[in-house]
Each structure stands twice: as C-alpha cells, then as structure tokens.
Design goal:
Elements lengths: L5 H7 L1 H9 L1 E5 L3 H13 L3 E5 L24 H12 L4 E5 L18 E4 L4 H14 L2 E5 L11 E5 L7 H12 L6 E5 L22 H27 L1
Parallel strand pairs: 1-2, 1-4, 2-3, 4-5, 5-7
Antiparallel strand pairs: 6-7
Helix pairs in contact: 1-2, 2-7, 3-4, 3-7
Length: 240
Amino acid sequence: MSEQFSRIELLLGNESIENLHKARVAVFGVGGVGGFTVEALVRSGIQHIDIIDNDTVCLSNLNRQIIALHSTIGKYKVDVMKERILDINPEAEVNVYKCFYLPETKNQFDFTKYDYVVDAVDTVTAKLQLIIQAKEAGTKIISCMGAGNKLDPTQFEITDISKTSVCPLARVMRQECKKRGIKDVKVLYSKEKSLSPLDKEHKDIPGSTAFVPSVAGLIIAGEIIKDLTRESFNKIRSQS
C-alpha cells in the first residue's frame, strides 16, 4: 500500500487506486471550479492529467481560486497548477495547454486518449463543442453549469442536462443540446436562484465566493473518482 494514497485506498481498495493511477483526465478551465477539481483528482490518485486554460492569475482571483496567491499573480494558471500538481505527486504526468478551448482549437485534442473530460469553461460555444467532441470519441464528460452569483453550495446537484431547472446557463445548454439531438449529458448545476450583484456598475461581472466554486469543483472530482472506480469498488465490496 502506497503511504501517500493509503487513506483513500482503505475505502476504495488497491485495484481502484491502480485504475486511478492509469486513468487520464482532461480538465478544461482551471479557475474557481476547475482548479479545485484538479486538486482533488490528483490528491485522489489521478496521475495523468491534461490542463487547458490560457488565462493568467489576477488579483480578483484571490478570493476563490486555489492557485491564486500574491506570489502567482501574472503567471499562467496552467503553469501554477502544474507546479502544484507535481508538488503533490512528483510522479504525475501533466500536459499543459495554454489556449482557450474553442471550435477553432478543438483539433489540438484527441479525446479518445482521455478516460474523462471536465468542462469547467464559461462559454456556451465551448461547452457544446466539448460535449460534441466527447460524444464522438465515446469519452465520459461532466459539464459544470453556472456557479457565479450563488451563495448556497448545498444546492448543487449532479443530474442529466434534460432534468435541470432554475439555472440560466443550464437552460441555454438544455435548449442547445435538444436542437442538436444531444442526449445523456451529465452536469453539475445549482437550484439556487442567481443573485444580482449589488454594484450596478459591474452588473455584467458575476460575483463569487470562496465556498461555492470550490464545492462545485470537489463534487465534480468526487463524481469522476466514483465513475472511474465503480467496477473495482463494487467487486471488492461484494467480497467483503
């Protein structure tokens, strides 16, 4: 038993940990949600991970993003995240892509190489293309809906896009997926009604906290770990 992963191995078993070590996950968007997803995945045993983002750390990220520190301001988020990953697990293989995922950049990624894809990006266009590309490759994907302008992390739910409600972004995605005949899309969304920013001059900038996007990222990571270890976990539990 590896000491680093011994505590999670006590719950999932050795075979599950080996499966996690072998799996390859791509996380698109390394912000408030995606950063915490990456963190939890790596701490849980994911050793092959691609991180995709073209943004740099700025002062307004400090209230909610795990990689945002005064010492990292101005640095590329993927570079900071990679350094953090390797500090957690030096044996990890990290591929960094300094770009925003768009239909124009989709050919940079071979989704057949991934066991799981995380959509933690902001735009509808990118989200739809991620889902389409994952579906074409037969790769599992989970898509995060709106986490901005929320204060209650207990209202997050994992469900199919067709069963979402309340969330404005989920409504648009639901409509766009229906137009394209896209079915069976796993999403994380919140039933909490979005709040309006108090500063009317900055009403187009979503407010955010330290405890909402982080919870969203951790829930996503937990769902991925569960999906990747389901078979081996069920087998070992049935024998115990």
